[in-house]
Amino acid sequence: MLKNVIIGQYVPGRSFVHSLDPRSKLITIFLFMIFIFISRDPFVLSSAVLLTAAAFLTAGIPFKFFWKGIRIILIIVVLTFTLHLFMTQEGMVLLDLGWITIYSGGLIEGGLIALRLFLLIILATMLTLTTTPVDLTDGMERLMKPLKRVKVPTHELALMMSIALRFIPTLLEETQKIVKAQTARGASFSQGSLWKRVNALIPVLIPLFVSSFKRAEDLAIAMEARGYAGGEGRTKFRQLSWRTRDTMIVSFLLLFGVFSIITRIS
Amino acid sequence: MDPIIVEDLSFSYTAEQLVLQDINFRVKQGEWVAIAGHNGSGKSTLAKCLNGLLMPKSGEVITCGRNTKDKETIMDLRRRAGMVFQQPDNQLVAPTVADDVAFGLENAGIPFKEMQERVKESIHRMKLDGLEDREPHRLSGGQKQRVALAGITALRPEVIILDEATSMLDPVGRQEVQEMMRTLCREEGITIVSITHDVEEASEADRMLVMHEGRLLADDTPREIFRQQEVLVQAKLTLPLPVKLSRMLREEGIRLPQDIMSEQELVDALCEWK
Lengths: 266, 274
What we know:
The complex is a heterodimer. Chain A is built from ten helices and two strands, in the order αααααββααααα.
């Protein structure tokens, strides 16, 4: 099941969406989210759908791959829709079965929230599909930079994230090794009751935990030996380039935002 | 001034037992020194004392003209004396090869333009061209150690300390790393201190220090040390195969020259033997 989750997997490409600066992508998506969550105007929402579709098409991600990946997450969308459908008691009665009543307000509310979540999932997935995790971390670090004034450890957070990214595959490999070693000694991970299977994981997690601490210690020593002394006075090897297209897309989104706010007020 | 000066060095992790005891030696500029010894002989601890990762309990360690006890110059010292560790997986910090090579340069605050050039140069020197964007977990052991070496050479160090850097590698990876050590020392004049329990690797060094139970047992050329049977026995070191084989042949009455050190020398001698 896990292999079908595609959030976090980068698909290399040279499209317009790929070529945007990670900062502008993050800002754009953030603004977009705010606007579609405050707007109820059908025109604004349908143009949001069109924009998302346009972004998806230009990104050039294979549709089948994408659909397979977000299918599971769409359960959340369906669930939220159903909840709103049954819980909202506004507008006129559409269906009355005695034990359950569906109102028109529920249908609208449910549809609205489902659409918003759906767009959110598509955009978040697309962000990770078109941006390498390293760029994403970098983008977040720079966007968070102003927070340094209020003592948020932005450099440390970004470093933690990038080390985590670096070690996820290594730890996965190690997990597989331990699982194999335990299987060779007669442990079973795919049989028995759920309780038994959960219990079988303990002899995997403990060695993994112990070796992770050993790794962390080694890494800390290696970093120290390479002259790491915190974020102070450090230069950056990775440079992000903010280009005209980034300014364009962000200003476009701002315009879209102003538009959606105007329709909300009037 | 010699790049490494160790005077009366003693060290202990706990109060009871000294891990290193009264160690004295100097390493000359451009020299290749192997520190050999059995497990627990204190050789890795000694390596960590050389760049100030561990502080001496008594005595002095002066590396690249800087005392390891001096907090002001420790960062500068570590830039001049780089270190490669045993576990290839646990010393690469960044998610890609190029980022990792740049890590030390970033720490040193090197401007972007220069950093870019140095990273490129180092990657080329360690023969890692084309792997710039590769993630560390997709590299072989030998490649990982070469990335670690590249990260260090980018800082243009005077000394490189290798703490059993080849011990976890397969034979191919070991050869790759040893070849790089040769280039760095013999062609570029970088001083190399390699901690190892591989006597074949040590036989290539200019000098060999033998450690045993925290003490320096011998300090001489590998050729000379291989002659001292009692040192080898005490330090639990076995002779490299070509050395051992040529000796056994000599004992059998086959007249080979004394002190054959490498496989190549043995092969040459056997071909000339009549």
